[in-house]
Design a protein that fits this description.
Layout (H helix, E strand, L loop, with lengths): L8 H11 L3 E5 L5 E6 L5 E3 L10 E5 L9 E5 L2 E6 L5 H5 L16 H16 L5 E11 L5 H11 L4 E7 L3 E7 L2 E6 L2 E11 L7 H21 E13 L4 E11 L3 H8 L7 E2 L1 H11 L10 E5 L4 E6 L3 E5 L2 E10 L5 H19 L4 H4 L1
Antiparallel strand pairs: 1-2, 1-8, 2-6, 3-5, 4-5, 4-15, 7-14, 7-18, 8-9, 9-17, 10-11, 10-16, 11-13, 12-13, 15-16, 17-18
Helix pairs in contact: 3-8, 5-6
Length: 365
């Protein structure tokens, strides 16, 4: 069915939930439009080795694909768009009934996370790694807002990030507020970004964050040189995402061959995995207590009007009922401070918690 068969965001969401159709809501950085891509039959699962579809749709790719966390492709049987300002309070507050699966994740305590970070620092100092990203899970219970309301509020609060809500009935309900572009493609031109290093507002950059950014920039440039020509980079500059600031270097290039080969070569970048990539990934899989699932994978609309926009799945949460499992991490180098790394994850968690948590009564008055 064509996207214009729906007159409102609430209508397409209601239809999808009634028909048990998977959908993805999203808002691109800096845009005023909300988009919904939906499939009128069960979502296509992309098996390992399968080519990515050339049809329009939405890709949802995990950090490390396996039988429990496959790659999903939501075909664009429906594609509805509307301006942010045209969404009514009734659509936002409607009590949509999502079919989810209750999962239990291992929460990482402060003491355990600090111990794991020190283990990573020791491994780096032995010369086995240059950088590795360690993440943790923080569970928040007591959500009172609907996922749709949370999504809309995040769009309003974080205007320069990619915000999305992916729903696959009985399997996935996933919220994302990502500051990091993986690849944007229009015709033969691509854009990507090296985003690394984190400080709070009014913080001071140190050699640790600068070195993190250099590692990611170097890695991305080497990958681009395999598939692209006329590579141009600009930065690093500060990227303010609300409660934290990153360093970002932007790349533009002419794509000579293989967009999806380029994507799979980039993923996972040093900003979410480490350097060297395979050794860092092995360390992550052996060290972290939880499964990352779709955290630090990638997601986004593809093949829509000749454009593909994929983002790294960061500042995200796995939703189920009134519970959210938040995934947050940080880059570890030889100069890292274990306590500072924990503090950084606390700040990053607030990106979602600032909207998920109820507003205190004294702030409403």
């Amino acid at each position: 069915m064509a996207g214009n068969s729906f007159s409102s965001l609430g209508e397409i969401i209601s239809n999808c939930i009634k028909q048990k159709s998977p959908f993805a809501l999203y808002r691109l950085p800096g845009e005023q439009q909300i988009h919904c891509i939906a499939h009128k039959s069960p979502t296509v699962v992309l098996e390992q080795g399968m080519p990515f579809p050339s049809a329009p749709g939405f890709v949802f790719y995990p950090f490390h694909p396996d039988n429990n966390t496959p790659t999903y492709f939501i075909g664009a049987d429906y594609h509805f768009s509307c301006l942010f300002k045209d969404i009514t309070p009734q659509e936002i507050s409607a009590n949509y009934s999502f079919e989810t699966v209750e999962t239990e994740n291992i929460e990482t305590t402060e003491a355990v996370h600090i111990k794991k970070v020190q283990e990573a620092i020791d491994t780096i100092k032995k010369g086995q790694l240059k950088k590795v990203i360690l993440s943790r899970v923080q569970t928040y219970r007591g959500i009172e807002k609907s996922p749709i309301k949370t999504f809309i509020e995040l769009c309003g609060k974080y205007s320069n990030t990619f915000v999305s809500l992916v729903y696959i009935p009985g399997k996935v309900l996933w919220l994302t507020v990502s500051p990091e572009l993986l690849v944007s493609s229009t015709k033969d031109e691509i854009k990507t970004a090296a985003v690394a290093g984190t400080i709070p507002p009014k913080g001071i950059w140190t050699e640790k964050e600068i070195e993190e950014q250099k590692l990611v920039t170097h890695y991305i440039r080497n990958v681009l040189e395999k598939y692209c020509s006329e590579i141009d980079l600009r930065g690093p500059v500060e990227l303010n995402t609300g409660n934290v600031i990153h360093l970002r270097t932007m790349f533009t290039a002419q794509l000579d061959s293989g967009l999806w080969d380029l994507v799979m070569d980039l993923h996972p970048t040093p900003a979410v995995c480490g350097v060297p990539k395979e050794e860092a990934k092995k360390f992550i899989l052996q060290t972290e207590l939880h499964k990352r699932k779709y955290y630090s994978g990638f997601l986004g609309p593809c093949n829509l009007n000749g454009e593909t926009n994929l983002f790294v799945n960061l500042r995200c949460a796995d939703l189920s009922g009134n519970k959210a499992d938040l995934y947050i991490g940080g880059g570890i180098t030889a100069d890292s401070s274990p306590q500072a790394e924990w503090d950084e994850t606390v700040i990053k968690a607030n990106t979602l918690l600032s909207v998920l948590k109820p507003v205190p009564a004294e702030k409403i008055a």
